[in-house]
Amino acid sequence: MSEIDVQTATVDMIGRTGAKNLQIGYLDEIKPTAWVAMATFDRGHKTGSGLSLPEALWVLLEGLVDGGVCQHCHKVTTLLAPTEITGHPASVALSAATCVYTYREDVKAIRPGCQP
Ligand SMILES: [Zn+2]
Fold it and tell me: To which H or E segment does residue 78 belong?
């Protein structure tokens, strides 16, 4: 698994949430440099920030996925970050009422846990 694969999958998933546009930027007037990702939707904008571009994109996606409803199984959705984002192995408190979305190396995409 590479950071680039995860980043590409993250951008793809942001697009699948209905984003019409994605802007990225950074603030180098503060140290360490902070990254910002902003998605535009028909009804406004959503942002994520972090200390790297992959982290900012992932935080944006978390805000879009967490607490949503899975279009496949209709459970509440949550996003589980891979090691490339967090720096440590993924873990989450699983609930039978939750559909966990995460990066899958076999398809190099972010997929819901209810799908094969
Ligand atoms: Zn599901």
Answer: strand 76-80
